[in-house]
Amino acid sequence: MDGNGRWAQQKGLPRLAGHEQGSKSIRQCVEACMETGVEFLTLYAFSSENWKRPPLEVNGLMLLLERFLNEKKEEMLREGVRLRAIGRLDDLPPPCRKKLSEVVEATASNSRLHVILALSYSGRTEILDAVKSIVRDAAGGGLAPDDVTPELISSRLYTEGIPDPDLLIRTSGEMRISNFLLWQLSYTEIHVTKKLWPDFAKADFFEALEDYKSRSRRFGGV
Ligand code: IPE
Ligand code: MG
User: Fold this and answer.
1) How far is the CA of 212 from the centre of ligand 1 (A)?
2) Closest CA to 198 of 5, 30, 17, 21
3) Which one of 50, 129, 137, 211 is the catalytic residue?
4) pTM of the prediction?
5) How confident is the model at residue 33 (pLDDT cuts 50, 70, 90)?
6) Domain 4-207 classified CATH 3.40.190.10?
7) pLDDT given for residue 107 in this prediction
8) What are the residue ranges spanned by the domains of the chain?
């Protein structure tokens, strides 16, 4: 989700105030999903590249994540939200990791809406990790070249069992993929909005769905 920094800057606030406000947009999207029957919502909350930001911002984001999980746990349980996380989760500070696994485990039997947080996530690293696991099996004699199918690759990604996205919403007008779900986005429809993430509300989500509805998806066919 992009544009927190610019939102804060426009208001003369510190960047962290933008991240704080941005976390409120998540609720708007979750509600919109529930109202429309969307079953999977993946949020690109923190990329592998984001570790390069100043420690003050990184620490603030990690604290915000921890607080978010603390505050939303009960509600997720009540509303039937299942939380999952994708990325190199071992990179996260231990208290964050602990809280995350706690909520992931607590909500594991929910199925109304799957919310997937991409944390310390990089699409290339995900593919790299999948290739490594395939090579490991091949070296052990358990896998032949013809066993490597698109389905096998999908099953080795962090998103195992999660369908490929139908729609990608990109906020703050950026026209790039930024290392997000590189394999999974092959045929995903893209909706770009100029709205900065903290300003992104339910109505914007509905607008994105309307845009999606107008698309003709041919998956390479005619
Ligand atoms: C949020 O937006 C993304 C996170 C890494 C949490 P940005 O922080 O990238 O906002 P801009 O791009 O500076 O506006
Ligand atoms: Mg940005």
Assistant:
1) 25
2) 21
3) 50
4) 0.96
5) very high
6) no
7) 98
8) 4-207
